[in-house]
Backbone:
């Protein structure tokens, strides 16, 4: 006889979720807004996305060109350095692999740059191989401006400050350089599973 009560079925799932929370984090159901400055509002007609820096040729997309690129739906947990985590967030975006297709580079790092001047640095390895996206939809709707719309970087395996809102491009760099929060003492890499919150962690 098969007898599975709702409560019984719930238990293994809950245990699995405990292992999904990086050290020092707690779960939220809402979606906090964390911005270092005012929300920029670039009209889509002025929006471009660029690949710049140490590349053989620069790449550039208008919004319409960008939105014709193949997209993926991504469901991931996100982890903010201020200790909230949100599980199973659903995004639609263009893989950074797609944006870097055909780019010849010896660079090992990227600086994501955004409207408003925000920047954040990442190893090239951490934005390629299906690990990062430029996301324009959240929960099936266009990404709200407060959360980085029209488009933000999504790098869910690192602390969420690496997921630059209002992202406008990636600058490829030979050497690692600190971005905005990294200059103020946040960790150069930011792995939530190793609690790399601040430089020295
Ligand atoms: N351009 C830009 N991107 C940013 C930030 C910012 O201030 N400006 N804050 C970062 C931080 S610290 C976090 S936790 C997340 C917050 O994203 P949310 O406001 O959508 O929750 O965006 C990151 N990306
Ligand atoms: Mo954050």
Residues:
């Amino acid at each position: 006889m098969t007898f599975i009560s709702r409560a019984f079925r719930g238990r293994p799932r809950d245990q699995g979720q405990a292992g999904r929370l990086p050290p020092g984090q707690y779960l939220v159901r809402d979606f906090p807004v964390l911005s270092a400055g005012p929300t920029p509002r670039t009209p889509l007609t002025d929006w471009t996305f660029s690949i710049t820096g140490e590349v053989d040729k620069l790449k550039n997309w208008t919004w319409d060109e960008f939105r014709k690129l193949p997209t993926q739906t991504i469901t991931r947990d996100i982890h903010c350095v201020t200790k909230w985590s949100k599980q199973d967030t659903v995004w639609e975006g263009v893989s950074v692999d797609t944006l870097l297709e055909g780019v010849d580079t010896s660079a090992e790092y990227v600086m994501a740059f955004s409207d408003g001047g925000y920047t954040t640095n990442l190893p090239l390895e951490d934005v390629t191989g299906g690990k990062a996206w430029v996301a324009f939809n959240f929960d099936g709707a266009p990404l709200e401006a407060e959360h980085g719309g029209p488009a933000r970087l999504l790098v869910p395996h690192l602390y969420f400050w690496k997921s630059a809102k209002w992202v406008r491009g990636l600058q490829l760099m030979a050497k690692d350089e600190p971005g905005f929060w990294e200059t103020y003492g946040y960790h150069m890499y930011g792995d939530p599973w190793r609690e790399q919150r601040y430089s020295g962690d």
